[in-house]
User: Fold these one by one.
Assistant:
Number 1:
Amino acid sequence: MTRRPPQYRRHVYQIDNRTGYSTYNSRLRPRRGRGEGVMWGCLFLGVLLCVGMCALTVVLTPIAFRQLSPEWQDRAARYLPVLRVFLPTEVPGVQALPTLDPARATAAAGFTIDLAGAPIATLAPGVTPSAVLGATPIGMPGIITMTPVTRPTATTAPLPANFYVPRAKRVAQLWNNCGPANLVQAMYVLGVDTRQEDTAAWLKPNTDDANVSPWQMAQYVNEQTGLRALVRTNGSIDLMKRLLYAGAGGILETGLIHKDDGSWLGHYVTLVGWDDLSAYFFGLDTFEENGSDGRGVRENYADLDQRWKHFNRVYLVIYPPEQATHIQDILGTAFDERQNHVEALEKAFLETQYNPNDMYAWFNIGTNLVALGRYEEAAIAYDKARYLGGGLPWRMMWYQFGPFKAYYMAGDYKTVLELANNVINSSKRIFIEEAYYYRGLASAAVGIRAQATSDLERTLQLNPNFAPAQSALAELRSGVIPVPETL
């Protein structure tokens, strides 16, 4: 009988033939072989290697992730949501608008505006606009009488209690593509199906461009499609319903609290319907979500209006050319651009009467005064907006550029440069070409020609389709100091 080696024997007990009892035989215990030791050694090294790789991954992943461009960071986080923990929680650089010096803040606090009699701003006794702005003003345009234009009043035909457009499609925006994606949604309502990559290629050739303004979207529609578009302010819930019901596409620009870090930013929403019973619009939101039933986010009328106020209640209307007369009838006096700003100024004024510390209403007063050519008053209204409520959101001038023109036209080039530098320094990962544009113009005004040329060239490098920079650079090269356009 062949005996197995001791390490393979199963029993360590044997029977004693003399006594009949089983006894323990230590020599029969199984012995560990060399192969088993090697196995356990390899297992230990494998575990050690896995732990080391995991630790290395935890250390290197955020470093490698943050070396990616902002666009690719966003794309990676969309596919692997766990990567969102490595997204920068804030934009590097300055994160507040420059504060006012005490004397200027005091003057801004005493600023009022009278629309009933002589519609011109008033200051605290003994204070002049040039003293407040600390510069030599270009000159006041004079008192502007707010006489309404003779256009028919907007239609007041009854509307249904609920409505939803026949065609609607949500488009999830790509990196920094809020404007182009909303434009695709609004044009789809009118039967034009295009891709956001196509609209973005013209509106923002550089993907890191953080802002597309309503006027740029309207320019795209009017020049690149067979549709028509216009931008107006002082919108209302009822007006947007009437435009939707007439078959137009409607986009609003509103304030939004970022869902990731709680900061304020500007955002577009495409309206596609309403429900009066629940008091909300259906809005296609390219950034957040599309509602539980896919029809759109429910935008409560009152909440939407408050966020819409952050942008002077601006809206973009898109319509077929054959509907132009009908759209004009719906808009009524708002169709005339100047009268539209007069009425928006009156609305903002009433909101300051209700709440004198409403910084957004004061900002809107400044924006409408700029549109009416009343730059010194506008500059002081912007001062007051910057003074109230602890200051405006630090991204405010990523999207709205009225203060640049107001301070420039009032001769306060120092503030233009200060604000432009603030925007540029607060957007290191992305860019706002308008800030370079206005810094270039202010640099030209104070005689720093090299900086002006560099900034305007930089603007066109970032966005070759930015027409105001094209004309400003041409004027500068011909020896003319360019004057900023209203953006």
Note: The chain has a mean pLDDT of 80.
Number 2:
Amino acid sequence: MKVHAQTLFLTVATSALLVAAGSLVMGGKAQAADMPVKAPSTAEAVANAWWFHGYVEVGGRFFANDPEKSGIAARGGRSLGKFYEYRDLRPGAFGNFHLATGTNNGLYQIDVWGKNVGYDDQRYDLSASKAGELYFNFQWDETPHNYGTGHTIYNGVGTTALTLPAGLSNQLHNDCLIAPGCAVATQNAAVKRDVENNLHDVDMGIQRDTASVNLRLTTT
């Protein structure tokens, strides 16, 4: 009977401990559910804050010695064709810029660039990223290839229609009929004079416009 009494006492004591432990766990869960959400610390707020920096450059270009542009190098003239071969540095106002922003923890970043805005060799870049997950880039680039300056009597160069100056066609026809029996040299001189009087400069070259988009996404 004594042994049975001890066994019963131990069983009752063990059951009481389990009930107490269960109550403690339930009480802990209830307490955790009622706890307010912890506000981010000052260090966390600084890490998630956004930074900004950049520059905008505005200026003007001009020639101090007024160089000749329309000269033909093959005839001994001075030409700016080589100077402008792959760029556009015409006199006038110009602008460049770079703007950037991102988070202090390095998770997000955005950059925007612009170079020689408004000219034939202008370039624009846009980059945006979320570190380790998303990287995006867009670029627009213009690259000229200038051959130099030429001369023509036609209007509308660079379009789908070329036209002669008003009245020139009739004038050239009349030059060939100056007077019955006149010397051919006289006719040629008249034609040459009218052509030279109607010549104007035209830039010769090609223009390449290139757009590119890059996207890299890493899923979780």
Note: Helices lie at 2-34, 42-48, 168-175, 184-197.
Number 3:
Amino acid sequence: MTKFIELNRRFYKAPDKDNPEESAQDSYLLSHLGGDKSLSWPELLQHRLVVILGEPGSGKSTEFRLQ
């Protein structure tokens, strides 16, 4: 059985930017830019359609199964 550690992950709306590199950089810095506008899993699951982007191997599939 795979061990899973609860991360209490938070999610942010992707910024509207034309430059994908700038968008990726901003995604790592959002929590430090002031104001916490992040969503928890329960809040995220209230939305009908969501796209989650993340690095390969970051646990997205496992988290989806557990949610």
Note: DSSP finds three helices and no strands in the chain.
Number 4:
Amino acid sequence: MTLVQVRELVKHFPVRGGFLARPRKWVRAVDGVSLEVETGETLGLVGESGSGKTTVGRTIVRLVRATGGAVTFDGADVLAARRQELKALRRDMQLIFQDPHSALDPRKTIGASVGEGLRLHGVRGIAARDAVAEMLLAVGLDRRHAAVYPHELSGGQLQRVGIARALALRPRFVVCDEPVSALDVSIQAQIVNLFADLQQQLGLTYLFIAHDLSVVEHISDRVAVMYLGVLVEVADKRDIYRDPQHPYTRALLSAIPRRDPARRRHRIILQGDVPSPVDPPAGCRFRTRCPFAMEQCRETPELKEVAPGHRVACWLVD
């Protein structure tokens, strides 16, 4: 069953010459993204920095207003929701930020930060304190952490606090915006395992945003690959990692270090820089860096199904 459906999502940011000046150009951060997230699954959204994946996540939960397109959550129109409707939706849709240090108010105790959403939705007193304590235990902390301040905790502990805050309202859908990229490699595995455990315990559905495909491989059921504001490939995790079809996906996967020589790929080094999202290339946006680019790539390829559940936007794939 589809829980979240995104159709032709667009988000353009204005580029202004001055504070009151009318925008002359637009940053095309997200330019027609369509995807679905099924109940109980983890959809990994990957791509280089600047690909627009974070903007997709924030627009879905309406922390950023969309320029166009449609987003539905369990049949409800997220983009058209009024204030009270959106407040109700926010109980079911939460976001975990990339940097746990900047996501928490240094003046508030951990208990106050974790319980903030509960208070906004009318849960107070003993009920709120018990809920905070329960969630801290669920993420591997304990009750005493409710009384401390962010500067007293490590980066891994702070990310656990961020997870507890997002899950305090018991949402059904969580956007995880690069939640382990700011952590040491030794801590990353612990947090990824925590996400998997919480998904099983609480019946969660994730949109897991990352640029590290080795992390996504361990937690995702399906993977969507993004480049310069558009999707280039979407498939089951096994199909993406065993048989990538788009040249950009192959290049990303070739950079993953492998201990097993049999699983190592020939490293594909992309030439040139990522084009500006203000003026992206016409046609296939990857063509200026693609080693297989041809004249037809000046036309925009459709994200089409090449095998059951496997969609690719590339003229090379027939």
Note: Residues 185-202 form the longest helix (18 residues).
